[in-house]
Amino acid sequence: MDNVIIVGSVADNPVVEDVAHHLRQHEDYSDLISLKSFLNTEFCPRFIIDEENWGNIGYKLKGKTVLLVSTNQGWNTRDELAMRNFLIARAAKDNGAERVVLFEPNMFYSAQDRGPRLDQGDETRERTIEDQKKFDGQPFSARLYADLLLEAGVDEVITVHNHSASVEKIFLDRFSGCFHNLQPADLFASYMQDSDVVSEDSLVLCAPDKGALSFVKKVREELQQDSIPIVYMNKERSDERKVEIKISPNSEISVDEIRGKDVAVIDDMVRTGNTIMEACNLLKEAGANRVVFFVTHFYSSRECRVNLNANTLDEIVTTSTIPDILNRDVQGRLRHKMVVLQLSRWVCNYVLKIMGREEAQLSPPLYTEDMSSKNPRWRGQMGPLYSSIKH
After folding, report:
1. Against a cut of 0.85, is the pTM above it?
2. Please, what is the average pLDDT of the chain?
3. Do residues 319 and 185 make contact, with C-beta atoms less than 8 angstroms apart?
C-alpha cells in the first residue's frame, strides 16, 4: 500500500512493527516519524519523510493515509497516549494527509461511557437513579475523547471488541459511520477447533453475564455447530468487589448436564476476576471436566492474577489487545495456564478490507499462539521444539 504510512504513538511498539510488517511497509516506523519530547516534557511528533525536498513544505503527506496504531503501554499512562494520538493526527493533517485512521484495539475511556444525566449515554438502556449517581460529578469522558480525536484530525477509528453500546453509538455518530468494532469470535472459534484447549465433542459455552451473551452466540455461529449448548449466568453486583452468580433457568443446558463437559467461559474483558471465578466455581461444582476462560482484553492487576490462579479455572486464552500481557513477568503465576493469541495478522485483514484492498488479504495462519513452557499443553502439544505459529 504505497499511499499508506503506518506509525505508532511510542517507540519500539511490537504491535506497530507487526502491523507494518504484515502490510508490507519496509521502512521502520521510527524512520518515518520522530516521537520527540522537549525538555519541558511537551510531546512534539514530526513526520520525517522526504526530508531533502524543500518544495512541498506543509504538504509532504499529500494524498497519503496515515494509520496510527495506539496500544496500552505499561510505561505510558493512557492520558499520555491519548494526547500523543491527538498531536500525531494533527501533525498528519497539518502536513497534508488525506486520511488519518486510528487503530486502538482497547479503546481508551470506554469504561466512562456515560455521564450523570439521562441523555448522557445509551438512551436505549433504562438507567436507574443508582446508575446516574455512580457518574455524578464526572465528565462524559468517552464522548469527549471521540470529539477530541475528531477535532485533532482522525477520520476513522478501528477497535476490537468494545463492550459499550454507548461508545459505539457515539463513535458511529461522530465519525459518520467510520467506526469499526472488530469482533474476535472467529478467532476464538478457530483456536477451539485447531488446538486441544477444549474438546469439541463435549463442549459447552458459557456467558458469565447478560452482556456477554450476544458475543458467545457469535462464537457458536463461527464454530458452525448449533448443537453446542450455552449456559447463561445471572449476575447481581452488590458493590465493586462483590458479585453473586447463578445459573439462569433459561440456559440451554441444565446443571446436571454440565457434568463431564468442557466449558468455555467467554467475555470481553477482565479486571478483577471476581465475576469469572464465581462462574468457574459454579461450573466446577456442577461437575465440569475442564473450564477455560476466553477473554479479549486482559488487565493484569495483582488482584486479577491472584483470583484467576484458583484451581477451578484450568486455562486462560486471551489476546494481545493489551500487549503487556505477553510479558511473562506481567503474567506472573498465571503463565502456567495462559495463552495469548497475537492479533496482528487478523487485524491486518480487516484493515485491508476497510481500505479496499481485499485482494491483498493475508492467508492463514491469522494469529500467533504465545504460550509459556510452564503450560502443561506446551510439551504435550508440540514437544521441546515447540513452534508458536498456529492457525
Report:
1. yes
2. 91
3. no
